[in-house]
Amino acid sequence: GLIGKATTAAANFDHSAAIPSIQGDYILWTVVVNRNKIPMSGVSVVDEVQAGHDLVIDDIHPLAVKKNSEAALNYTGSALAQVNGTLSGITGTGFTFTLPAGPWSDTYTLTFYTKLNQTGLNGMYKNGTSTFVNRATLKGHGSDIMVSSTKTYNLEMLNKSLAAGYHFTTRTVQWKLTVNRNKLPMANGIVTDYLPDYMSLTPSGAAAF
Fold first, then answer.
1. Please, which residues bridge with residue 5 across strands?
2. Are 97 and 65 in contact, with CB atoms under 8 Å apart?
3. How confident is the model over 63-121, as pLDDT tens digits?
């Protein structure tokens, strides 16, 4: 196609991996322009980051642009114009990348990062999933062509499971509670566990833990 967009598959979120690496709170996106290598000229890619995450372009997280199988060129705030095109309009919600004037029949691959912002993180304190959306539009080759991609994280704030099955001699069951599997920031958390009428802690009180 003329433009395609993708990110990595669903993953278990780990907030602690965000520092100091490019994992954790960061999402890697890929835009492919002109996969079929038809003649093109005067085109640009406009990327729009949706709610919950912000564009990050810096020396550690550059916009990398690869022409065909050549080595990628990195674009940052201090390297806006290179042979593969020109980066402009950088904001937290997107950017514009203008490809060479052409005509050309090459495939260009753009990769870049967004980072979850506080709104995005606040929506992850739950059991279930959280999805982040990124859109890209190809302009200048006939009608605008818009594509989008999503990144979905698996989330688990609280899980209860059997640590050991029923023991017929002692008539006990061992339980396991997992809190904040995704390692999100927490303070003053309280877990309340309810036992049915036919069960009681053993031994009683804090010694049960």
1. 31
2. yes
3. 999 999 999 999 998 778 889 999 999 999 999 999 999 899 999 999 999 999 999 99
Burial label for 22, CB within 10 Å (0-12, 13-18, 19+), is middle
Tokens of 47: 């990327």
For the entire predicted model, the pTM comes to 0.84
Residues 6+ apart with CB under 8 A from 172: 166, 202
Which of 19-33, 34-48, 65-79 shows the lowest mean pLDDT across its residues?
19-33
Using an 8 Å Cβ cutoff, are 161 and 175 in contact? Answer: yes
Q: Amino acid identity of 135?
A: R
